[in-house]
C-alpha cells in the first residue's frame, strides 16, 4: 500500500513467503513512467514465514507533480528483478490518478475507493467502458479497440478525471 501520512508517504507491503530474496528497491516517479530509487529494504532470503515491510518517503512534498507514483523492485540473490504494480499517493487534494495519460489504448485508475464502480464516457456523454476497482482501489482500463482519438471522462463516485486518447 502507499498512503499519505502527514507530510510523508508511508509505503507498506507483505510477503507470504520468499525465495532467494536479497532486497527491495523502493522507486518513486512524478510521471508514472520514469522511476528513481528512493530507498532499499533488505529481504529475508528464503523463508516460508510472512514478513511485513515498510519505508517512509519524507520527500513527497518536494515532488512537483501530484500524485507521486511508487513501485517495488524485488531483487533476488542472483540479481533477477521483478516489479510490483504501481501505487499512487496524492500530494494535495485529489487522490485519483490515471496513468499513462495520455494513452493509446489502456490506462490504469489509481486511488479509487475499494471495489468502486468506474465508468468512461466520451465527449458526448456516451458510455464507453465500465469497470470495477479492485480491493486497493486500482482499476485497469482496457479501452475498446478502435476508440477515436480525443478526450474522455473517467468517473468514480463523485470525482471525474480527464483522459486523453492519442
How would you describe this protein?
This protein is mainly beta and 166 residues long. It folds into two domains: 88 residues, Immunoglobulin-like, CATH 2.60.40.10; 69 residues, Immunoglobulin-like, CATH 2.60.40.10. It is 0% helix and 57% strand. Strands 3, 4, 6, 7 and 8 form a five-stranded antiparallel beta sheet that branches. The model has no long low-confidence stretch (mean pLDDT 89).
CATH topology of the largest domain: Immunoglobulin-like
Largest pleated sheet:
5 strands, antiparallel
Helix-strand category: mainly beta
The amount of helix comes to under 10%
List the keywords:
166 residues; mainly beta; Immunoglobulin-like; 2 domains; five-stranded antiparallel sheet; 0% helix; elongated
SSE layout and pairings?
Blueprint: E1 2-5, E2 8-15, E3 18-29, E4 36-47, E5 51-57, E6 68-76, E7 81-83, E8 87-89, E9 97-99, E10 106-110, E11 117-121, E12 127-132, E13 139-142, E14 150-156, E15 159-165
Antiparallel strand pairs: 1-2, 2-5, 3-4, 3-6, 6-7, 6-8, 9-10, 10-13, 11-12, 11-14, 14-15
In short:
This protein has no helices and 15 strands. Strands 3, 4, 6, 7 and 8 form a five-stranded antiparallel beta sheet that branches. It has a four-stranded antiparallel beta sheet with strand order 12-11-14-15, with no helix packed on it. It starts with a strand and ends with a strand.
Amino acid at each position: 500500500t502507499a498512503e499519505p501520512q502527514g507530510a510523508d508517504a508511508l509505503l507498506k507491503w507483505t510477503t507470504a513467503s520468499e525465495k532467494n530474496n536479497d532486497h527491495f528497491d523502493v522507486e518513486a516517479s512524478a510521471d508514472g513512467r520514469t522511476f528513481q530509487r528512493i530507498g532499499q529494504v533488505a529481504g529475508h532470503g528464503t523463508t516460508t514465514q510472512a514478513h511485513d515491510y515498510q519505508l517512509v518517503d519524507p520527500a513527497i512534498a518536494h515532488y512537483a507533480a501530484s500524485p507521486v507514483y511508487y513501485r517495488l523492485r524485488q531483487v533476488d540473490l542472483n540479481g533477477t528483478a521483478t516489479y510490483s504494480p504501481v501505487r499512487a499517493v496524492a500530494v494535495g487534494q485529489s487522490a485519483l490518478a490515471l496513468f499513462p495519460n495520455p494513452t493509446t489504448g489502456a490506462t490504469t485508475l489509481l486511488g479509487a475507493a475499494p471495489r468502486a464502480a468506474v465508468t468512461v464516457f466520451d465527449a458526448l456523454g456516451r458510455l464507453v467502458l465500465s469497470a470495477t476497482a479492485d480491493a486497493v482501489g486500482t482499476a485497469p482500463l482496457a479501452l475498446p479497440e478502435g476508440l477515436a482519438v480525443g478526450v474522455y471522462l473517467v468517473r468514480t463516485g463523485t470525482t471525474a478525471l480527464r483522459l486523453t486518447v492519442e
